[in-house]
Amino acid sequence: QVRSFTYDDKYRGRMVAHRHTSRPEIRYRYDSDGRVTEQLNPAGLSYTYQYEKDHITITDSLDRREVLHTQGEAGLKRVVKKEHADGSVTQSQFDAVGRLRTQTDAAGRTTEYSPDVVTGLITRITTPDGRASAFYYNHHSQLTSATGPDGLEIRREYDELGRLIQETAPDGDITRYRYDNPHSDLPCATEDATGSRKTMTWSRYGQLLSFTDCSGYVTRYDHDRFGQMTAVHREEGLSQYRAYDSRGQLIAVKDTQGHETRYEYN
Question: Which Pfam families match (predicted)?
């Protein structure tokens, strides 16, 4: 199946239409500020978008309407209330720097989010029934543990370089990560609680070259000089291939059965 795209001649990168093979073309219209005002589908629902200072009204071709109410300016503008076509309403609250604090569903049930004042990382999520999950981080903003409403905990440990070296699951099972290069963040092996070992090899550019599972089954990967994956070779001799044009855009994929999907760009 082929999907084609059409772009505006005047405004680079602005998509004005797309279509799938044997399907009608979907077209888009924009206002002078580059905002979509219409999505036109000759064989299905079309939509219009009307922008006001503090809300956006979306109307489909059956005259069903949704309204997105916004607060804030520029990069801090957020959708704080959504009026759905069925009459229901959902709401969100954000703090002064745009971080999500609460979400209230159509039934009036509220979930609360507690971000760290300095980092913005979520430290606690409280569901409508009052049950809470807690999250803890180190001074590098890496997650060190998380406790769910049921009290079960996962834990993570890192080495002095900030690399994950151990993860403990709620049931106590431990997965360890091994590194053979002090300058790489990429593990060369993982070991699970049963002692099963999986190994990986990487190129000097961070590309996965091979993966060996705990049974010794090896999958190998090829890349071109630009780092894009060109082939996956599996143990049983089956391979998948990918081809790119001079711009690095994917132009063909061939599966293990030899079936090829091609992509075209204008």
Answer: RHS_repeat
Residue 155: helix, strand or coil by DSSP?
Answer: strand
Alpha helices (runs of H) in 194-247, residue ranges in sequence order: none
Q: How far is CA 116 from CA 101, 121, 124, 181, 248, in A?
A: 11, 5, 9, 34, 40
Whether residue 1 has pLDDT greater than 60: no
Residue 100 placed within a domain: no
What SS3 class is residue 75? helix
The answer to whether residue 231 sits within a structural domain is no
Specify the residue for token string 């060190």. Answer: 144
> Residue 71 belongs to what domain range?
1-87
Cα dist. 105→72, 108, 109 in Å? 21, 5, 5
**Assigned domain for 182 exists:** no
Write a three-state SS string for 6-23: EECCCCCCCEEEEEECCC
Q: What is the pLDDT of residues 119-175, one digit of tens each?
A: 999 999 999 999 999 999 999 999 999 999 999 999 999 999 999 999 999 999 999
| Pair of tokens at residue 111 | 């979930």
- Number of neighbours of residue 187 by Cβ within 10 angstroms: 19
pLDDT greater than 70 at residue 226: yes
- DSSP letter, residue 79: E
